[in-house]
Write a structure and sequence with these properties.
By secondary structure, this protein is an all-alpha fold. The protein has a domain of about 45 residues. It is built from two helices and no strands. The N and C termini lie far apart (about 100 Å).
Length: about 70
């Protein structure tokens, strides 16, 4: 019986130590930063696409006005 409790105690200590291990948190943190950057780029690209679309429409209008 004492041997079983000792094994259980050692397993509990090993589990506690493995939960303290912070190797691998870096990957999660980098993934979160990358996700935020991608979201910012997508939001910026939508706004920039609207601006570029307006500029092309202005150029197209100017060309068609000068062609006729």
């Amino acid at each position: 019986m004492q041997n079983a409790f000792l094994k259980l105690y050692v397993k509990a200590l090993a589990l506690r130590e493995s939960l303290k291990d912070e190797n691998g948190q870096d990957l999660v943190e980098y993934a979160l930063v990358l996700a935020v950057v991608v979201l910012m780029l997508v939001a910026g690209a939508k706004g920039m696409a609207t601006t570029i679309n307006g500029a092309f429409a202005t150029v197209a209008g100017s060309i068609s006005a000068n062609m006729s």
